[in-house]
Amino acid sequence: MKILVGYDGSAPAKDALELARKHAAAFGATVDVVTSMESGAGNQQEEIEKAERGLEWAKSLFADKGIPCNSHLLIRGLSPGEDLVEFSRDNRVDEIVVGVKRRSKVGKLLLGSTAQYVILNAPCPTVTVK
Fold this sequence. Notes:
Elements: E1 2-6, H1 11-27, E2 30-37, H2 45-63, E3 69-75, H3 80-90, E4 95-99, H4 105-111, H5 114-121, E5 126-129
Parallel strand pairs: 1-2, 1-4, 2-3, 4-5
Helix pairs in contact: 3-5
């Protein structure tokens, strides 16, 4: 079994890591932790390094429990939702776990919602963590 976790360093994303760790331990799964950035221009080097450090920290949470885990920083020009869905299709993921940030309905309408996009377009079950 393969579990994909969308990770952006937020509190809901950390909660998603914890749930994925429990699911992976229960089902003997491997975990892919993914951070998506829409662009990686030269002036964003600091953000890229911060994302890489976050992924290494996330990966260590699984290593502590002996759970196989890979981390991926995706900079492909896609929105985070599109990146997660495409990654899940390309890698035959069995479950996606994403954190949900609380936003007003207007905020979701104007800015969109990564979790909403993943839920509606994922090729596998998606679990959200609040």
